[in-house]
Write a structure and sequence with these properties.
Layout: E1 8-11, H1 17-30, H2 42-53, E2 58-63, E3 66-75, E4 85-92, H3 101-115, E5 120-126, H4 130-138, E6 142-153, E7 156-166
Parallel strand pairs: 4-5
Antiparallel strand pairs: 1-2, 2-3, 3-4, 5-7, 6-7
């Protein structure tokens, strides 16, 4: 698969969800990067997509009609005091990894989050995952903490690293973010 200048990064559409799921499914089946045990069925994944995109951005990188990667943000925690926070994820097709696409997706995503007045972005990374840690460090994330042996998948317990990035200053009296 060629990675060239004809890549478009745009808001994901419901019609992109099958391509997004094609990228995500091997991570579920073959890795502990996600703690899901079973690949979601397409209708379930479509509902997840609709739920996230009702309030947060979900972007895709495409070349023609092919989805090459995606990045999205979602609610970090339920309580009102966390409304300026979100969790982010990025996934890229294996044929185009290590070519800067995840960085491009994240930079676009973070701009969208700033426009919505979100301030704190958290990455939740199953360890070991040196590529993901390096990507997040490259983008300015710092370690916030490690939850030791917090997830069991593929016959092993896995630590989870929390990393944080501040997109803006923390005002004394913040206006609510635009999550509409």
């Amino acid at each position: 698969m060629e990675l060239n200048t004809s890549i478009e990064i745009r808001p994901a559409l419901l019609t992109d969800v099958p391509g997004i799921l094609d990228i995500y499914a091997p991570f579920v089946r073959e890795t502990a990067i996600t703690f899901e045990y079973e690949v979601p069925e397409l209708p379930v994944f479509e509902e997840r997509f609709k739920s996230v995109t009702a309030h947060y951005p979900w972007l895709v990188a495409t070349s023609g009609s092919q989805v090459l990667g995606y990045a999205y943000a979602m609610r970090f925690r339920e309580r009102a005091a966390y409304q300026w926070c979100c969790e982010c994820s990025v996934y890229v097709h294996p044929d185009v990894r290590r070519r800067g696409l995840a960085t491009r997706l994240y930079k676009h995503l973070f701009q969208e989050l700033r426009l919505r007045s979100l301030i704190n972005v958290y990455a939740v990374i199953t360890l070991p995952n040196p590529q993901s840690v390096a990507l997040h460090e490259h983008l300015g994330f710092e370690t916030a903490g490690v939850l030791r042996k917090s997830g069991f998948k593929h016959g092993a317990w896995h630590d989870v690293l929390f990393m944080e990035l501040f997109l803006a200053e923390h005002p004394q009296s913040p206006e609510p973010p635009d999550l509409s």
